[in-house]
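Researcher: Re-running this chain for the archive, since the previous output was lost when a drive failed. Same request as before.
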Amino acid sequence: MNTLSNLPFLKMNGLGNEIVVLDLRGRSHAVTGEEVRAIGRFERARFDQLMVLHDPVSEDTDAFVRIYNADGSEAGACGNGTRCVAWAVLRGTDRTETAVETGAGILACTRRGENVFTVDMGAPRFGWQDIPLSGPVPDTAALPLSREAPGLPALERPFGVSMGNPHAVFFVTDAAAYDLAALGPSLEHDPLFPERANISLAQMAGRDRLLLRVWERGAGETRACGSGACAAAVAAISRGLAEPRVTVVLPGGELVIEWHGKDEHGKDEHGEGVRMTGPTELEWSDSLPPALFGDAAV
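Model: Regenerated structure tokens:
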């Protein structure tokens, strides 16, 4: 029988970004891509991102979290998923703070309300090697990338940044007008991005408000993307389009992003990175049926 058979999971969402949390702390099992895809085929466990908790690696953390996209590929960051993990780790306790570790580093999480959390997503990284890109470019704030959009202004010169995963942010006058399902796949897989990229369309609605749609690598367009919201806010602040605190409006709802610029380490004057505040929701809990994995047995 597969190691994952009958294990409980939490079906959650952050602004409609579909999240499944699977707690493997105390177990040595590493989830495979085949198992990830099998879990995603289970109707009650459909997800945009799967957050798998493992035993902590670093001191003063509650878990090491591996993040998977629906296609089985591994992601470096997921802001909405991290808030869901924080809810799962802190539920049933009187604690208000936790820290979890991902491949992108240690993320500090603070409970602001019953279902509202702030996550320090770490410092944005702007170097071409850090995003990463396939080679040096003159300015990662204006990448040499464009796409024609029939009847609309071309998408041009996106802002490149890593929030633990690669992002390209296009600023447009009407984000809703573009066919992101048609444009997203080729941009995600453009040769400029050796690890693919998350593609965002950002529309400024004021210096403290930004409308955003995101095509997530390995998942497609989702109702919300926490790291994408952080990337778009960083891009807008860096270009002088937004204040250090900006509300990012996604199809699933709103996130508040704060970033006060950077020191030589990419963090603000308080030693913190990009802070994201938003809600979580538990939809249900269930167990993974043994029949789900077929020959993916361990």
